Amino acid sequence: MDLITLLPFIVLIGAMFLMTRSAKKKQAAAAQMRNDMQPGTGVRTIGGMYATVKEVHDDTVLLEVAPGVHAIYAKNSIGAVLDDAEYNRIVHGDDEELDADGTVVPDDASSLTGESGADKADIAKIDLGKDETADDAGTEDAAAKDVKDVKDAKGDGKADGEPEAK
């Protein structure tokens, strides 16, 4: 047999070996993580629920999912064991980074624009009210004609919103 003919098969077998090797490493790391769980540590299940470990058995784990609420889970259902800082940040909303920076978020965006009070006074204000000079009699006549057209179109002499006569 020729070496060139065997080369694709050798490459395929080598790729399969490397893929299974990395998968076995990931499985071993996950099993080690689950075996290293101690009571009091925070965990995330594969379903996305955060809980605290109360007891660890051979194949099961007793989790406290809420204060006073306990549930038994299989060890395989633990997706990640979290360190205390990350668990407290996610579950309790403790943000040590914000406390250290002292960053304060303003209630409105006016402080973010960088304009001073004098600059705001210079900006012309827009009047959204009705202009007195634009009110002319032609507008009122058009509205009255529209109501009459509605009555004529119905043929019964009543406008929209009027109760029916029985």
TrEMBL record:
<comment type="similarity">
    <text>Belongs to the YajC family.</text>
</comment>
<dbReference type="GO" id="GO:0005886">
    <property type="term" value="C:plasma membrane"/>
</dbReference>
<keyword id="KW-1003">Cell membrane</keyword>
<keyword id="KW-0653">Protein transport</keyword>
<dbReference type="Pfam" id="PF02699">
    <property type="entry name" value="YajC"/>
</dbReference>
<keyword id="KW-0811">Translocation</keyword>
<dbReference type="InterPro" id="IPR003849">
    <property type="entry name" value="Preprotein_translocase_YajC"/>
</dbReference>
<feature type="compositionally biased region" description="Basic and acidic residues">
    <location>
        <begin position="117"/>
        <end position="132"/>
    </location>
</feature>
<dbReference type="GO" id="GO:0015031">
    <property type="term" value="P:protein transport"/>
</dbReference>
<keyword id="KW-0813">Transport</keyword>
<feature type="compositionally biased region" description="Basic and acidic residues">
    <location>
        <begin position="142"/>
        <end position="166"/>
    </location>
</feature>
<feature type="region of interest" description="Disordered">
    <location>
        <begin position="98"/>
        <end position="166"/>
    </location>
</feature>
<keyword id="KW-0472">Membrane</keyword>
<keyword id="KW-1133">Transmembrane helix</keyword>
<keyword id="KW-0812">Transmembrane</keyword>
<protein>
    <submittedName>
        <fullName>Preprotein translocase subunit YajC</fullName>
    </submittedName>
</protein>
